[in-house]
């Protein structure tokens, strides 16, 4: 028992040694500056590759079900908004301008949208139609989801999940159980992609998203109207991707508090709409 504890402890220690503090993004006008702890075994490149693979599989599945990009006008609209937002990502991280950003539309009634690590964006038709979103409101959602990718929140939560499972694996190995390391990594990745973001991550995505939309020339006030619509439009059940988010009133308060910081950026934006 004692030996087991020592081995498990060694696993945890080596894990701590394998962690590094990183700053994924620059602060911007909104000043998001938290240092993030990342597990080095999961590099940005690995996470992006896993995500890109998962995204491809989702696209292939949707294609088969004939639910992929069925509405050309909306697809064009999404791409236009994405282009304007992507043009602004250099404020937060220079390398992101070279990412292979992509946006696709899924014909599905759910109120959902996401951006996977590395810049793979998906919008569900339901959220655009049911909430009758304006371009600026779409930009608010897209900017928020892009911010999660810029801040590598996916890799951060994967690192956390990996740490927990790695600890378990150390105990398992001590108990003489065979574990397939790669299998574990895959499981963790699968979980992390669907893992809810922490409140801290949500607040950061709100602020960075707000600045991205303002710089792209979308009125940041639309972020507030979006969340107001969202809280009404959710019906009895909140939208799936919101159920773990902070309460709407907290979120709206945070956004309103930060609008003055980004308003000058919106007003001086060349492509203001
Ligand atoms: Zn979020």
What topology does this entry show?
Layout: H1 2-17, E1 19-22, E2 36-39, H2 44-64, H3 72-86, E3 102-106, E4 113-116, E5 120-124, H4 125-130, H5 135-150, H6 153-174, H7 181-194, H8 199-215, H9 221-233, H10 248-267
Helix pairs in contact: 1-6, 3-5, 5-8, 5-9, 6-7, 8-10, 9-10
Bound molecules: zinc ion (ZN).
Zinc ion is lined by residues 144, 148, 197, 202, 205.
Describe this structure in words.
This protein has 273 residues and is mostly helical. Helices cover 59% and strands 8% of the residues. It is built from 10 helices and 5 strands. β4 and β5 (120-124) form a beta hairpin. The chain is globular, with a radius of gyration of 20 Å. The N and C termini lie far apart (66 Å). The model is unreliable at 1-14 (pLDDT under 50).
Number of domains: 1
The end-to-end span amounts to: 66 Å
The oligomerization state is: single chain
Overall body shape: globular
Order of helices and strands: HEEHHEEEHHHHHHH
Work out the number of β strands: 5
Which ranges are low-confidence, i.e. pLDDT below 50, for 5 or more consecutive residues?
1-14
Major sheet: 3 strands, mixed
Strand content: 5-15%
| Class by alpha and beta content | mainly alpha
Percent helix among the residues?
A: 55-70%
Rg is 20 Å
Helical run tally: 10
Any descriptors?
273 residues, binds zinc ion, mainly alpha, disordered N terminus, three-stranded mixed sheet
Short overview:
By secondary structure, the chain is mainly alpha-helical.
């Amino acid at each position: 028992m004692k030996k087991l504890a020592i081995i498990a402890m060694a696993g945890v220690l080596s894990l701590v040694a394998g962690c590094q503090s990183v700053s994924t993004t620059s602060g911007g006008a909104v000043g998001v500056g938290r240092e993030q702890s990342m597990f080095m075994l999961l590099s940005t490149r690995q996470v992006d590759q896993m995500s890109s693979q998962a995204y491809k599989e989702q696209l292939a599945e949707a294609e088969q079900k004939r639910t992929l990009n069925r509405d050309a006008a909306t697809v064009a609209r999404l791409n236009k908004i994405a282009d304007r937002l992507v043009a602004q990502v250099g404020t937060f991280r220079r390398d992101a301008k070279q990412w292979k950003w992509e946006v696709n539309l899924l014909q599905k009634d759910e109120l959902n949208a996401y951006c996977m690590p590395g810049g793979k964006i998906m919008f569900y038709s339901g959220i655009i139609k049911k909430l009758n979103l304006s371009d600026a409101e779409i930009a608010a959602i897209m900017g928020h989801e892009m911010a999660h990718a810029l801040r590598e929140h996916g890799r951060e939560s994967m690192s956390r999940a990996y740490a927990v499972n790695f600890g378990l694996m150390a105990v398992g190995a001590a108990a003489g159980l065979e574990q397939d390391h790669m299998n574990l990594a895959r499981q963790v990745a699968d979980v992390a992609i669907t893992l809810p973001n922490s409140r801290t991550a949500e607040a950061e995505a709100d602020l960075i998203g707000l600045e991205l939309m303002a710089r792209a020339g979308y009125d940041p006030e639309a972020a507030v109207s979006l969340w107001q619509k969202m809280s009404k439009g959710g019906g009895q059940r909140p939208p799936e991707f919101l159920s773990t988010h902070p309460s709407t009133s907290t979120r709206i308060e945070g956004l309103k508090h930060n609008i003055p910081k980004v308003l000058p950026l919106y007003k001086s934006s060349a492509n203001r709409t």
